[in-house]
Fold this sequence. Notes:
By secondary structure, this protein is of the alpha/beta class. The strands form six sheets. The chain has a seven-stranded mixed beta sheet, sandwiched between helices. The protein has a five-stranded mixed beta sheet with strand order 12-13-14-15-16, with helices on both faces.
Amino acid sequence: xxxxxxxxxxxxxxxxxxxxxxxxxxxxxxxxxxxxxxxxxxxxxxxxxxxxxxxxxxxxxxxxxxxxxxxxxxxxxxxxxxxxxxxxxxxxxxxxxxxxxxxxxxxxxxxxxxxxxxxxxxxxxxxxxxxxxxxxxxxxxxxxxxxxxxxxxxxxxxxxxxxxxxxxxxxxxxxxxxxxxxxxxxxxxxxxxxxxxxxxxxxxxxxxxxxxxxxxxxxxxxxxxxxxxxxxxxxxxxxxxxxxxxxxxxxxxxxxxxxxxxxxxxxxxxxxxxxxxxxxxxxxxxxxxxxxxxxxxxxxxxxxxxxxxxxxxxxxxxxxxxxxxxxxxxxxxxxxxxxxxxxxxxxxxxxxxxxxxxxxxxxxxxxxxxxxxxxxxxxxxxxxxxxxxxxxxxxxxxxxxxxxxxxxxxxxxxxxxxxxxxxxxxxxxxxxxxxxxxxxxxxxxxxxxxxxxxxxxxxxxxxxxxxxxxxxxxxxxxxxxxxxxxxxxxxxxxxxxxxxxxxxxxxxxxxxxxxxxxxxxxxxxxxxxxxxxxxxxxxxxxxxxxxxxx
Length: 550
């Protein structure tokens, strides 16, 4: 038995340990029906001034499923969903599950090349998209895909407020060759869904990875994976029916799908949506709806913290806030708590684990590594086994750097139509994450960085994360990213990019001097470029690969 099997981190939980993994639903669809039976007339979705009850969501998704079935949609067919954070996302997801279909989650920021790739790779038979995305992107590529049915909708549906900060100039549009979603659903409102049999190992979703090591891969998140991940999340963050969830993570992303969509359906609790992230709009939604839980990238909370008028009073409604998807520096976590009065729980997950893997127990604080200054991402969640391993997948002892490997009921069986990539990353249910980290003697885990982001400066290894955490300690720095750039003498050298807080002022030279006082010479950035904004994914993860091109 290894140190990982003995789970030395159990003592960290104390009486907060939610117990062994014991799911209450075998499929994502069972999970939805259980929530429906618990509170049929409770609110499922809050969208600006609009609300949809759980019973109405059931009726809308029934009608959507019946409409799909009437047009030849069958068990195992793929439905592309190309939407922002709107109620139609949940209607389409639940409706697809009722047909036994597989949801293909598509980033609404994707353009023609990416959309074509995902629709082609998945073999999607139908697509649900916003009218604006059909006009600007989808209509130009659909003829090159297997898509037979296109359903369009608008962000203006299910609300009347039409906030000018998001919807200024937005109008309903005619989309030739498509069906309007609300009209389609209304025409099938009284028709029963097909009643497809959904099994635990049937795929529920294809969630595409970011493609940082090649073409994006469609992780096959099964119904068992979704049900397991949702159960783990619900227990972990202490979600109860008297709370609500603020949907700041994009719903197409695995974090939004589990921590927002499926968690809200399962508990059940209302899900507060606001179309897309706009700090002022989200702050208004917090004040209006008083959500009790959310999870998002740290860049979301940096933006909220720097929004004019934001204060600790606004965040008193939250029982817990978690951050994942990007490193959280101790300095940023401390600044948010000092200004907003709420502690951000650090966490670590991935698409292939259907979101959750390692989290800081709610109500607790992870330690800071004295050597690197990194904040712990927490301890393994119930049902998960997490290891630090060498290149041959041998377990490494506490304190040693190695690759993070995870296994558990929420780890996917593989990638869609990619057997070689599946064999490389997933062996015997163990997921090789490509992230480097270590574990302490008592079980706290730390993520150092991605393997591919390691900088080799004259033979010295530099992990960008450590340098970024130091830059975050400067009071003027809002965001920071560090990359390796070619250097004739050293092979590679360290370069940093930062954006500044509102009304803050600092020069690159001053920041370099600040770093020199806190880092070894070989780790210190040789150049620092100050930008208005750092490039990010829709989930808020800073794109180092784009900065390497600057």
